[in-house]
């Protein structure tokens, strides 16, 4: 039995020495030190030995097991080190190579347009106000002189969530909410940019979700000429000092009188071309004097206070200013399009 243990030791150590992979080492460990290995079989036969031989064989078996285990661990450590060194060599970096330039992003064209408009109106004393995109029917329609059943509601085909909740169809509810908070106690001078939603078929000039910026100025002795002055400053800032404006009579339920504003065509300078359909003018926004009923519902005395309101679409402004021919370009996330308007 003593000779058998010595043979197993020599045999196992030779196999460990010649092994080249971690899998080979694991197979050797199982084969010699496992529960069904030859060393275990030798130990099971110790019952046939005399009392004097048992401790001698037991001690030898433990030494053989320990020698094989130490050899396995040493070889495993060596193979792991070799494998790591090989991996590091294969994955080494050439630190002398020039670095790859980092592509810097920038604001989206619509974001830039909105921020430019905000800066302009802040400079004229307007505040920026925001409101919820999921709005109540009251603030979206009724507080703006659009009671239930009013035919003008058909102009704004809406996404209703419940009978009293919907995705706002314009940002005018922010104006109604702000006036309601003030309860007729002080003037209001604000613009409210934000997303709005309407059930519309997406095409080159329409989208079911788009952006609006609406403005409101309520105070004592506000006149239509004040509205014209503000809009004239806006047009010249956004489209150039040589732009002219004109106001045409129109209808909106929340303003009276109401107007549409046109700017002179920058392509033909008002002479008439295909862009302005031969008129020399391009429609850009709507506005008017706040309807007395809207003021009254917000808590303002229409005999003391009056004001003007206006609304514009940043997408349309961007399309006119930069010659974009399809509103869908703003939402398709095509990097080729966005890079054209990237300002570093």
Automatic annotation (TrEMBL):
Coiled coil feature spans: 65-94
PROSITE patterns, sorted: AA_TRNA_LIGASE_II
InterPro entries registered for this protein in UniProt: aa-tRNA-synth_II, aa-tRNA-synth_II/BPL/LPL, Phe-tRNA-synth_IIc_asu, Phe-tRNA_ligase_II_N, Phe_tRNA_ligase_alpha1_bac, Phenylalanyl-tRNA_Synthase, tRNA-bd_arm
Cofactor binding mode and count: Binds 2 magnesium ions per tetramer.
Subunit structure, interactors included: Tetramer of two alpha and two beta subunits.
Family that this chain belongs to: Belongs to the class-II aminoacyl-tRNA synthetase family. Phe-tRNA synthetase alpha subunit type 1 subfamily.
Name recorded for this polypeptide: Phenylalanine--tRNA ligase alpha subunit
Annotated organism of origin: Radiobacillus deserti
């Amino acid at each position: 039995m003593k000779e058998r243990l010595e043979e197993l030791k020599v045999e196992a150590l030779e196999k460990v020495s010649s092994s080249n992979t971690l899998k080979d080492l694991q197979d050797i460990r199982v084969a010699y030190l496992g529960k069904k290995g030859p060393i275990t079989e030798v130990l099971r036969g110790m019952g046939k030995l005399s009392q004097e031989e048992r401790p001698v064989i037991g001690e030898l078996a433990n030494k053989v097991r320990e020698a094989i285990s130490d050899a396995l661990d040493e070889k495993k450590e060596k193979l792991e080190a070799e494998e790591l060194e090989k991996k590091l060599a294969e994955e080494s970096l050439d630190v002398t190579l020039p670095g790859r330039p980092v592509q810097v992003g920038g604001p989206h064209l619509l974001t830039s347009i909105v921020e430019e408009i905000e800066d302009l109106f802040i400079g004229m004393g307007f505040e920026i106000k925001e409101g919820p995109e999921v709005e109540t029917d009251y603030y979206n329609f009724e507080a703006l002189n659009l009671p239930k059943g009013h035919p003008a509601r058909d102009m704004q085909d809406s996404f209703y969530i419940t009978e009293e909740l919907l995705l706002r169809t314009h940002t005018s509810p922010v104006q109604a909410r702000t006036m309601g908070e003030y309860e007729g106690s002080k003037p209001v001078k604000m613009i409210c940019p934000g997303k709005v939603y309407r059930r519309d078929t997406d095409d080159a000039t329409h989208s079911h979700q788009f952006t609006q910026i609406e403005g409101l100025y309520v105070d004592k002795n506000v006149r239509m000429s004040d509205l014209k002055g503000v809009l004239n400053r806006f047009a010249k800032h956004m489209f150039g000092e040589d732009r002219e404006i004109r106001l045409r009579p129109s209808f909106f339920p929340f303003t009276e009188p109401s107007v549409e504003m046109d700017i002179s065509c920058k392509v033909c300078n008002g002479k008439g071309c295909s862009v302005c359909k031969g008129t020399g003018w391009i429609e850009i926004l709507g506005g008017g004097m706040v309807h007395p009923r809207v003021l009254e519902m917000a808590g303002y005395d229409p005999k003391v206070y009056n004001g003007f309101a206006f609304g514009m679409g940043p997408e349309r402004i961007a399309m006119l200013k930069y010659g974009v021919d399809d509103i869908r370009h703003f939402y398709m996330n095509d990097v080729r399009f966005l890079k054209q308007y990237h300002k570093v």
